[in-house]
Amino acid sequence: QAQLEESGGGLVQAGGSLRLSCAASGSILDISAMAWYRQAPGKQRELVAAITSGGTTAYADSVKGRFTISRDNAKKTVYLQMNSLKPEDTAVYYCNVAYTGVTRTYWGQGTQVTVSS
Q1: Cα 79 to chain centroid, rounded
Q2: 71: phi then psi, degrees, rounded to nearest 5
Q3: DSSP assignment, residue 30?
């Protein structure tokens, strides 16, 4: 029943910024954690950033200092503020949500981020 709606992707020049949003709906369960993954062409999908419902965060080394994950628990929305974007940040970014008491996690549809050089 969970539904994740991603938005905010687009084309940006190197050094620019984008903010991704992922809104969760369709479930009565509480969210335990939300995360952003990305998958670049020819590469494995990787964890970019994660945040628990309590606010604990974790980041991939490649984005530390440039990206910030945040959430609005009331809106069940997670954000990824991406600054100082680099061409290597180009990827499809996927939201992932874990619900309390549910084994599986749920994926958003993905949003394309393209950083030009």
Answers
A1: 7
A2: -150, 160
A3: P
**Arithmetic mean of pLDDT over the chain:** 95
Q: Which residue has the tokens 């749920």?
A: 106
Contact predicate 2/76, CB 8 Å: no
Count Cα neighbours of 38 within 13 Å in the Cβ-side half-sphere.
Answer: 23
Please write the tens of the pLDDT for every residue from 25-66.
Answer: 988 899 999 999 999 999 999 999 999 988 999 999 999 999
Report the distance separating Cα 84 and Cα 52, nearest Å: 25
Q: What is the mean pLDDT of the segment spanning 78-92?
A: 98
Cβ contacts of residue 109 below 8 Å, gap of 6+?
4, 5, 6, 94
* Residues in a beta bridge with 22: 6, 78
